[in-house]
Structures are given as structure tokens and as C-alpha cells.
């Protein structure tokens, strides 16, 4: 028994040495003695200009090491799974759809950022301020305006229009089980038609030739006619900000978001409970809410800053204005209903 | 400097391929292990080499038990039936392999390889690829390779049986000369009696995993221990007789066998023990009048005409016999056969 | 020391060799998987999912579609294997290289390419796409053995009056059976656990165990449901492995390897049909690739190299944290580490496996077969399960490997090891045991025998395995996307990142990155194949 333990230890040692020996794929940045590294766990959509991060490092002595962990759902679930031994110090990207789970699992520590009263407080989800809103993003139906002009068809504008036989076989959406815009759109219809009314609406959508893809990539780049893919369908479920990326040569948007079909998701940041550098983690949250960072989110992550008085990039006012009355469901209601709705949706629309 | 095997038993699963074998090879002796296929002779050789674990018994060299000595430390050379040359190396590298393994200084390799190639009659073949060698050349290289590290015992596993007849004979003679000249202790496994007798000093006959008989070549040839051994050694007909005064009387006639003591005796006849009476090749030892019969088959061989003769005797319906190549015999012809002591073994 | 003691000593040596592969498997595979599945069990509700008819429909569809893809891949791969092993025509070397390209393409890209041909996806496109990825596995694995199989047996059969087809079926095919069953087992596992392609081409209608496990684990955090499905997946994989092992055992030792033989020649008569079939297969494989290359240089306004120029940057407004070139260099480094690690462990494991197979006694052979199957399991278990398993276990190791960049090559190695074993094992096993015995009687110790006999004779296979493993590591997406750090993405991860953002340039850059990945793959394969060929040839007469 003892000998076996020794063997195992030797083997483990060998593995570790081997692993160490071939650490060509290193990449651990050199940090000066006065800089500390804080690990930011986030979703795959994270993007920030390096200059802004460098400036923050210079002024605070904190180097942010980014760890991407899938989409918002995956990120939340991974944070839940690792709450006993957190992956990092601070997390950004848990959205309103998953906020309830994050809160009830206690993955965040309470922290009220001094920057929170500049706008983020509007999206607060709990009294203890465990999560601070960083940005908001709206999922809306997008249309290829050129298509409707060319066909001489009035562009659709509302949920009801989408089920109109006039627009038969023109729309593509994403599976709410596998794509977060799909889930947001489903939640939008639930908010709009009520918990008992959305099923009938989806039946109509399906009867009207709705196509469902697993991911945003296929729907937007392959099936949607307004993107570079030049697909066959002029109506797609995407983001309110997407038209800003589809400007024609004249600088005018080729696509448009239908502002009456939007569902709002708020993305939050928080200090991870059980982290070893709580003070520095708080400073990172402050940074995420600061003017300095907020001004970058629109251009880099196609979302709208939670902070008030932050300018949007040129062109956004026309191509991608922030929807004024997006639908939203309370986080706890989403938490309670999500799985049930998805499985109902699957038996209704899938298969 | 001798091998001694005691009570060696090798099992494949529950089948005993070799059972309680006792065997000795003296220094410089060449012993042939003779037996039909499936008799266990190769297994015995492999067990001696250390390639096959023994269930029971011991293999000793000079009194040292080799059970704990792995193959590569036994210092026994091995030549396989099909050479097993290393295809990814040339002839010289094949031969030098053992030298490298035994850390013979590199500088000596070339000279020793050359000497060994001379020895096996392949001078100048160093740079040949082994895939370009003929079967006989490959076996010569295999032999040279096995000899290179100067093994204390050379094991030859049917080294010639993959070759054609003429080549086999020539190579057997070469092998015999080479082993004698180099005074190598060797164990030759073969199913070919002629090969065994050409190459070896002593012979052990193995059948069903057991040694039936062991002894000097001539002794075993002339006096097989039982019918089984006799049959394996080429005897096709058995006849009982009575010896008196250096002559044996049988149903097939009388024959002079001066070394046989008086009393009942069992003779084993090889085909050439019965010859066409009165023919020139019949030698002077023929006595008596022989026996008459009818030819039922006649086949031409290189040195004689091989006959099957129906005798009409109650104890033996047909016998094998030989006639000179020139004899013009056909099935149906009546012949008279006489006994030739040269083809007769005394069984038991 | 008794004879038995010698055997035991040999056994101890083997055990020591076997410890490293086993330890690796336990730490980086078994432990994480058991931990995460265990969590699902403690949460309860596993039984309910297992009792659900939908679960079994899912399992049925998974197995059936994977089996269909496997059959297709084998049928398409055999003519190509023949071409690679037996035909001497200009361009064969090129085919040997090109056939590997599909294998490294990120699933997202292939899925999208197939969607261009079948806009609505569906079962057919799904089966075809999975087969598309895996033709290379069959062609290279079987071709490797085929080129070393003695042609004389087939010639003998022809002389006995067998038609070429009959000779192939009754002589060559059985000799190739170990490689074919090996390849088929690997392909089946790849197909049964294929993820991206199923998601894109199956849409919301066709789901497999793998996509469902992903969904339940990643999106729903329904660990008990995922655990139940993992059990089903595990059972299906083990069943496939058992079938493969039985097929292998029946044909064991069917192939005799001859060294220094080049059986390739110009095809004659009916053989041209086989060559034509192989060319057709290669042509089909290249179609999506060509369309990708076209996509990488076309914009709505005509041809442009903008995508390639963009590789020097980080995408539209920093979609990536690194440039395309840096991602390429990350890919190369991670793949190198993974290949080194996988070769060490895979070759060790193969040596142990061969020794166990040759060892007397039922116990050793049983152990060998168990280890053989265990080594294959990483291919059959969802990358998500392993990845989430890492999250809940690897913090216990020094240095918290969960967030370490080392995890990428480790996870890639986990995927490559079974491939290395499958490629090396048949050839290693086919080395005539008497050659090794001849070396032993000449004074070579077991280690020396391995170095002097097995290594040179299997060098080509080892190099081929390394090359193949390298390429797999280059293209590995499932586990890598899970573990790669954003400051060090590999090319496939970067491509997926680019495709997930709107904007024409991102799209073009993604396709350009695909082209880059293909070029890197082709270069790597050419280099490694060349090295293998040269060493293989010069090894004759070198020592």
C-alpha cells in the first residue's frame, strides 16, 4: 500500500516535471514588484482596448489578467461550481438572466462602488449591492432594410408583424437553449404576451416559416441577408447594436433593429466571495464602472454603457440607438421559469 | 563448459509441450535434437535459450542455474529457421549487432565481420542489404551474426529447412565443417535425419515432448530404442527374427549382423534394406535366398528405383525395396528381394 | 531466483513503465470526470433522466448517426489508404498531406461550409460532415499498415485463381483488419462526441448526447441530468470499444510487417478504378476547403486580401486580444507541447500494451485489454464533462492548474494519446517477435531490443503518429476553447471568436485565419512526413 503511494507520488512528480519542462506555451506576463495581478473572470465577449487596461495598471498598480469562460450562462455556472475555490478575484458578465442564480448561490461579496450612483444603480438587483451593472445590451429583431425596399414591402415593425403571412419564410431566430440572443428573444415574447400567451404567438411564428438555428453565428452570418453572408432571410434575431457594424459605403446602416421587439439584458460585475485580494478586486469593479472604461464598451463589446453621460461612438445614434422601452422580466422570475420555458419551447418549436 | 538440462517441463496453458527432459551437451559437442514436427523440439531449444519460461526443472551451464539469467545474459547464440535478419540494417551491421551489444570496441568490428563472412563463405558482402540476399546467403549471414559475439552455446532452430534440397545438403556439410573447426558447442534442432547425422556428433530423439533416445549418431541410427524412434529414423518395415552366430534369420531371409547377440531380435528395415536380388549393387554381405514378390509401384529416384512389393506373407502384405536405376521394372513384374545389412536397424 | 521470479521481475519493469500513462489518465481524466459526474449523482434525479424515453431516443440517434458516419468514413478512406500505400504516381505525396487538412478545420468553419451547401442542415449533412472530418483517420491509419503489409500473400491468392477483388477481400482486408478496426473505433468516438457540427447542422431538431450534455452542463447547470447522459454516453463508448477490441482480437497478428519493402507501384487494370475512387474522395474533401479559401479572399466588392492583412491585427476593435499571427504561434507551441507529451505517454503505453499482450497468462492479457480500452476513453467522454471536471478538481494540485496555460497542451495531449496508441500499437505488435528474440540472444537487453529493433522498424509509424497528433492538436477546439486563456488563444479559438462577432472584416479575417491554419497544417505535415521518410530510409544500414 505504502509502496503504491510512493509510486503514485513519483508518477505525479514526473507528470509535473514533464508539464513544467514543456512550458513553451507559457505566457505568464512579467509583472513588476509593485504591480499585483487581479484575475478577472468574464465571458467570451469581453474585449477592451489594451491602452485603457495599461493606463489602469499604471495608475493603480493592478494588472488585470482576463479569464474567459464561455457565454454568460456558462460563466455563471462555472462561478457557481467553483465558488468554494474561486477561479479569480472579480467577475464580469453575469447578466440579468442569470443574476438570480448568482445571487442565490452567493458567489459575490457585497460591495457598493463609489461609481455606482452615476447610472449603474438604475439596474441594481439586490439591496446588498453584490452585483454592479456595467452595461446593458438589447436583443432585438434586425431587418435588412434594403430587402424590403427592393421588394416594395413595408418593413415589419412589431411582434405581430413577424407572424403576418406577408413575411412568411423571412425570419430566422436562435434556439433559446443554445444561444443567449435566442433566450432573450423568448423572454421578450414572454414579457410581451404573458406567461400564458407566448406559446400561441410562437405557434404562429412557426406556421409563418420561422427558421431556428443553434447559434447566432449561423443565423446572422449565414441566413440573414443583411450581413456579409448574404443569406436568404431579411429578418433575424440579433442585437440592438448590430446595425452599427453593418454600415454601407455611404456610412448609412444597411440594417435596422426593430425597437419594439427588444429585450434588455444587463451585465454585472462583482467581487468574488472567497477571493484573496478583495481590496484590489473592488478597485477593478470601480474601474469597470469608471468613465475611462465605460467609454470603450460600445465600440468593443457592442453594448451600451450603464453609466450616464457616456458618449456612444459616432454613427450609433442613427444606426443603433438605445431602445427606450425594452421588455424586461424580473431576475427571480427568469430564474424560476427559464428551464420550464425552454423545454416548453423545445416541444413547441424544436423537433 | 557444458550444458545440462534436468527434468525440464514447459507448458503452453495445460498442454505440456516438453516433459521432464534430461539432456547434456559436453564442451565442443554438437548435439542434434531430432523429432517430427510438433514433438516439442523447438520449445525445448527456446526454453534453453530463455525465451520460454519453464514450468519445472532446471537449465544449468557449468553447474550454474540459469533460471534467473535473462536471455540476453545467457551468452547463447540462436539461429532461426528463417534467419530473422534485421531488415533495417545491412549485412555487416547485422553481424556487428552482437558485437555492439557486447561492447566490443568499434575498431574491431570491421575485421571480425570480415573474418565471419569469410568463415561462412560470403566474403565481400558487408554492404549488401539483407533483403537482397538469397535464402542460403541469408542463413549464412544469420549464422555469422549468431557466431559474432562468440556464444558459449550455439542454438540452431531448423536452420536449413527453409532451403531447397541441394543447397541444404551443401550448407549442412559447410555447417558441420565450420562447427568442428571452431570447436563450438551447439544444439541443432531438426526434423531431417540426414542433416542431423551430417552435422552432429550425438543425437537426441524427441517425440511427444519427451526424449526417447539419446546417444552417438551411429549408435542411434543402428539401434533405435523402439518402433516409434525407428519409424522416425526412416524404418518402414519391422520384422522379427532369431540371431545366432552373427547371422539373423527372418521371414524375409537371412542377413549377417555380426554385432547382434544370439536370441530373438527385432529388425527395422529402411527401404534400401531390401534389394533386388542378383543386381550388381547388391554388395557382398548378402546371404540366403531372399524373398519373392510382385511389384505394385515403382518410382524413379536420383540414385535408385524405389519399389513397393507385395509379398503375400501373412505378417506383411507389402514392403519397400530398392532396385538399381537401370532396372526396368513395372507394376505386375515378379521380383526377388534380398536383405542388405546397411539398411537394417536393430530395434530395442 | 525461480523462472517465475524472472517473470515477476519483468512484470515489475512493465508496471513501472505503465505507471506514467496511468497516472496521467487518472489525474487529468478519471479524477475530473468522476468528480463532476459524482456531483450530479449527489444532486439526485439521475434515475429520472435515465428512465426518460427521450434520453434513449437521443442515445439511439447519437449511436446511429455516428455509426453511419463511421461506415462512410471507412468506405471513403480505404481507396485513399490504398492510394497512399500502394500507388506510385505523381501527386500521391500531395494527397497524403492534403487529406489531413479537413481534420484540423475548426468545426464551426466546416459546419458553416456545409450549411452553404445544405442551408437547412439535417441528418444527411450531419453524417457527411462528421465523415468528412474523419476520412483522414482511416486513410492514414490503414495506409500506414497497408504500406508495410507483405504483398506476397495477396499475390499467392491471385496465383490460386482469386480475382483481384477476391484476393483483396480474403487476404489483404483481413491483414488490414487491425488498422481498420482501430481507425473505425477512433472515428466512431470522434463522431459520437462531435459537438460543433451537430449544433450547426442539427439545428434545434437533431440533438445528440454530446450537445445535450453540453447544454445541461454549461447552460442549465443541470449536473444530475448531465451525469445521467454521461453514463449513457460512457456505456455507448465502452460498447463500441468492446466491439472494436473483439474485432481486433479475432484478427490479432494477421498482418506481418516486412521492413525495407516498398510495395508501391503504378496501378494496373482495374486498380485504376480504385485510384479514381480515391481521387474522387479527395476531390470531395477539398470542395469545402476550396470554398473556404475563396471566401477568405472575396468581399461583396470583389477580391481582396483584406482578411489576410487583418491577421496582423486583432480584429475589428480588438475582437481578439492577440493578432492572428500570435494566435498561430500559440497554436504551434501548444501543439508541440501536446505532441511531445502525448508521444511520451502514448508510446510508453503502447510498449506496455504490446508486452502485456505477449505475456503469458490470462491475467496479463486481460490487463492489457483493459488498459487498451481505458486509453481510448478520453475520446469518448465529452470535452465539457472533462472541462467542468477540471474546474472542481485541479485546484487541489499545486499551482491551481485550472487557470494555467499548461492546461491546453495537457488537454490536447489527452485527445491525442488514444490516436498515438491506435497508430503505433498495430505496427509495434506486428514486429516479428522472433526478431526481438534474435536481438536478445545476441545480448540486447529488453530496453536495448526496443531501441535497436522496435524503434527503427516502427519509426515511420511513430513519426506518422506524431505528425497526426500534432495536426489534431493544431485543430483541437472542444477542450481548447474551454481552457485557452484569452491572452493566448489558438487559431481555432481565435477563428471561432472572430466568427461570433458581426462585421465583414471579422468574417474575412476568420476565413483568412482558416487558410492560415490549413497552411500551417500542410507545412507541419510536409515537414514531419519528410523527416519520417528520410529517417526511415537512412535507418537502413545506418547502424
From TrEMBL, chain A:
Gene3D superfamilies: Periplasmic binding protein-like II (3.40.190.10). Residues 1-19 form the signal peptide. It comes from the Bacteria. It holds the Pfam family SBP_bac_6. Keywords: Signal. NCBIfam families: sfuA. This is Thiamine ABC transporter substrate binding subunit. It comes from Amycolatopsis samaneae. The lineage of its organism: Bacteria, Bacillati, Actinomycetota, Actinomycetes, Pseudonocardiales.
UniProtKB/TrEMBL annotation, chain B:
It comes from the Bacteria. Signal peptide: none annotated. The keyword Transcription does not apply. The keyword rRNA-binding does not apply. It holds the Pfam family TOBE_2. One of its GO terms (molecular function) is ATP binding. Residues 3-233 form the ABC transporter domain. InterPro entries: AAA+_ATPase, ABC_SmlMolc_Importer, ABC_transporter-like_ATP-bd, ABC_transporter-like_CS, ABC_transpr_FbpC, Mo/tungstate-bd_C_term_dom, P-loop_NTPase, Transp-assoc_OB_typ2. CDD domains: ABC_Carb_Solutes_like. This is ABC transporter ATP-binding protein. It comes from Amycolatopsis samaneae.
UniProtKB/TrEMBL annotation, chain C:
Residues 59-242, 328-529 form the ABC transmembrane type-1 domain. It is a multi-pass membrane protein. Keywords: Cell inner membrane, Cell membrane, Membrane, Transmembrane, Transmembrane helix, Transport. The keyword Cell inner membrane applies. Its main location: membrane. The chain crosses the membrane at residues 12-38, 58-85, 97-117, 123-142, 175-203, 223-247, 272-295, 338-356, 376-394, 406-428, 461-484, 509-528. Pfam families: BPD_transp_1. It is found in: Cell inner membrane; Cell membrane. Gene3D superfamilies: MetI-like (1.10.3720.10). Belongs to the binding-protein-dependent transport system permease family. This is ABC transporter permease. It comes from Amycolatopsis samaneae. The lineage of its organism: Bacteria, Bacillati, Actinomycetota, Actinomycetes, Pseudonocardiales.
